[in-house]
Specification:
The complex is a heterodimer of chains A (264) and B (326). With 264 residues, chain A is an alpha/beta fold. Helix content of chain A is 28%, strand content 28%. In chain A, a hairpin with a 4-residue loop joins strand 3 and strand 4 (28-29). Helices cover 25% and strands 28% of the residues of chain B. In chain B, the strands form 4 sheets. Chain B has a 7-stranded parallel β-sheet, with helices on both faces. Chain B is built from 8 helices and 18 strands. The structure holds flavin-adenine dinucleotide. Flavin-adenine dinucleotide sits between chains B (138, 213-215, 239-242, 253-258, 270-272, 274, 276-277, 280, 290-293, 296, 309-311) and A (13-14, 40-41, 124, 126).
């Protein structure tokens, strides 16, 4: 069985609002602030794939990314975590695509790779927060799509997928091929790469694919246009509660909340 | 005349609040453009809800009442929606930011070759296009976006739009949709379903929310938060980290990829105030933060703050409030 995990390198989503910098001209975040990271939800997706592989050594896990020079880093990290192979989609025409364009290119690559049984995506990338590529891939590849998934078990030729629901969970049985969008859960916290993994990953060859390699000759569609990027403002003024120690602050906080008529 | 199509979602046999909100947004756009607003209503045994949708702002309701739609299956729903879109030919399709709709929107966009913008919080009508405001980069920035092409699809963040009416005097057309669903097979089969016990009230509807984050350290310490929530007839929430660490179930997660809440009072305990968390609670009327780090970003969006280890604050706070309520 062959699993492809789609991943993206993003500006560190944990950069606090006060320090976050925007390139208003280019209408995107300043790229070189902090160390770029593997999108956290993609790490959850890699973990779900590797857990399947832990139970069945015949499963091959390929990590795929589309992006410029710096995205090699996410591929190396995924390989170090335990993915078998990497696919790097790299072409000037792949830059600044919207979700539809991204899915169209990735679908081409997956079709070209052939015999892909499961495609996993993180539920959304922490830069543009669009959360569309997984569902669009399901349409492109004509497969079922399970959103909010967090665990997958394989029994014979069927997959049992655990997904979150509004107020609980459900287990879905699905056939192959399948696309699933992975959400965070206490059961899919990404493993750390081992030292051996890092060494092996450093030596692996990563094949790149250009638009030509994927036989993309027409212009990639672009339907969503960013007009402007701005920074939001919050206008709350915090009042700090004083006190000698914790309990005294608690008494003062309680009195304040009661005075403000907030306790009913 | 191009029009606006709104996807109606049903929760507990009623039109959902996020649906009422997007109907409000659609009426806001229609007030400037004069376009008709249609609603798509799909399900089984739901025909009685058409008048509700008209009172909530729809000019017409396209209803497909079919037992094959009793359980949600993307395939069947997409086929009906594509039929409705073909007959309405809308230039804009609005979805509420609820689970099923979020799943349908990208796939319908693909079938219609339209552009989709998710998690919108604002609409601005211009002569040539509607400009949508969408938080990006974990809500640290706001993008103003538009769709190039004949059909714009959007999902809308709950609790960001004012519902319309309801106006009992409104009249509208009801159109029955006869999509043939005989050959549509479900893509997946549900073999098990587990609903969590709801301890207090429903999180999204609570007047008071008491949330904890990584600072809480273990599931036991969340009991204090539950105690305060119960005392104030509220609900308990959490950050993603608290969910990831298994301190609370995923249904407690508040934020960009969790629930969106806007209670009268929000308690943030041991929460740093990452933008992705704030995205789910910044609409709260009054925010109380308890954090041992005076520089925690949560304080900059709070009304009142206590710089302290929560363990030194919570027991006395609960006692004092219990006395006051007695
Ligand atoms: C695409 C994406 C989506 C995301 N969606 C969400 C989401 O929906 N919801 C969400 O919450 N996060 C989300 N996140 C994660 C988010 O970026 C942060 O990682 C997370 O919100 C941090 O949680 P936290 O505040 O509990 O932890 P931390 O940031 O680690 O903060 C813990 C705080 O606890 C304080 N503390 C520690 N000990 C004590 C004590 N004894 N007493 C008092 N205070 C103490 C510390 O000072 C610190 O401020 C998302 C991230 C990405 C990339």
């Amino acid at each position: 069985m062959h699993i492809v995990v789609c991943t993206k390198q993003i500006v560190d989503p944990e950069i606090p609002s006060g320090e976050f910098k925007v390139d208003f001209e280019a209408k995107r975040a300043v790229p070189d602030q902090g160390e770029p990271v593997l999108n956290p939800y993609d790490e959850n997706a890699i973990e779900v794939a590797l857990q399947l592989k832990d139970r069945d050594k015949d499963i091959k896990v390929t990590v795929l990314t589309m992006g410029g020079e710096s995205s090699q880093k996410v591929l190396r990290r995924a390989l170090a975590m335990g993915c078998d192979e990497a696919i790097w989609l790299k072409d000037p025409s792949f830059e600044a695509l919207d979700s539809a364009g991204t899915a169209a290119v990735i679908a081409k690559a997956i079709r070209q790779a052939g015999n892909v049984d499961i495609v996993l995506c993180g539920r959304q990338a922490g830069d543009w927060d669009m959360g569309q590529v997984g569902a669009l891939l399901a349409e492109e590849l004509q497969t079922a799509c399970i959103p909010m998934a967090y665990n997958i078990e394989k029994k014979e030729n069927a997959l049992f997928v655990k997904r979150e629901t509004e107020n609980g969970m459900a287990v879905l049985e699905a056939g192959l091929p399948l696309v699933a969008n992975i959400t965070n859960s206490s059961t899919n916290q990404p493993r750390y790469p081992s030292v051996k993994g890092v060494l092996m990953a450093g030596r692996k060859k990563i094949p790149t694919f250009s638009a030509g390699d994927l036989s993309i000759d027409a212009e990639i569609p672009k339907r969503v246009v960013v007009e402007e990027l701005t920074l939001p403002s919050y206008d709350r003024q915090v009042l700090f509660i004083d006190g000698e120690d914790g309990p005294e602050k608690a008494v003062n906080l309680a009195a304040h909340l009661i005075k403000m008529n907030l306790i009913k | 005349m191009p029009g606006i199509l709104v996807y109606a979602s049903i929760v507990c046999d009623a039109v959902s609040m996020p649906t009422r909100e997007i109907l409000g947004a659609a009426r806001g756009v229609a007030a400037k453009t004069g376009e008709p607003v249609s609603a798509a209503l799909l399900g089984s045994g739901i025909s009685s809800l058409t008048q509700d949708l008209i009172e909530a702002g729809a000019d017409s309701v396209h209803v497909c009442d079919n037992e094959k739609l009793w359980e949600f299956h993307a395939n069947a729903y997409l086929k009906v929606l594509a039929d409705i879109a073909a007959s309405v030919n809308p230039r804009m399709i609005i979805f509420p930011g609820e689970a099923a709709a979020i799943e349908l929107a990208p796939r319908l966009a693909h079938r219609l070759k339209g552009g989709l913008i998710t998690d919108c919080i604002g609409f601005e009508v211009r002569e040539d296009a509607v400009i949508f405001t969408k938080p990006v980069y974990g809500s640290k920035a706001l993008a103003r976006m538009r769709v190039d092409g004949p059909t714009a699809l959007v999902t809308v963040r709950p609790r960001t739009q004012e519902p319309f009416g309801p106006d009992q005097n409104r009249k509208g057309d009801v159109v029955t949709v006869e999509t043939a669903l005989g050959d549509i097979a479900p893509e997946t089969r549900t073999v098990e379903r587990v609903e969590e016990e709801v301890f207090e009230c429903i999180l999204e509807e609570a007047n008071v929310v008491v949330s904890g984050g990584r600072g809480m350290k273990d599931p036991e310490s969340f009991q204090q938060l539950r105690e305060l929530a119960t005392l104030l007839n509220g609900a308990m929430g959490a950050t993603r980290v608290a969910v990831d660490q298994g301190m609370v179930p995923p249904s407690c997660q508040i934020g960009l990829t969790g629930k969106i809440v806007a209670p009268e009072v929000y308690f943030a305990v041991g929460i740093s105030g990452a933008s992705q968390h704030i995205a789910g609670m910044s609409g709260s009327k009054y925010i109380v933060a308890i954090n041992s780090d005076p520089d925690a970003p949560i304080f900059s969006i709070s009304n009142v703050g206590v710089v302290e280890d929560y363990r030194n604050v919570m027991p006395t706070l609960i006692d004092e409030l219990r006395k006051a309520l007695a």
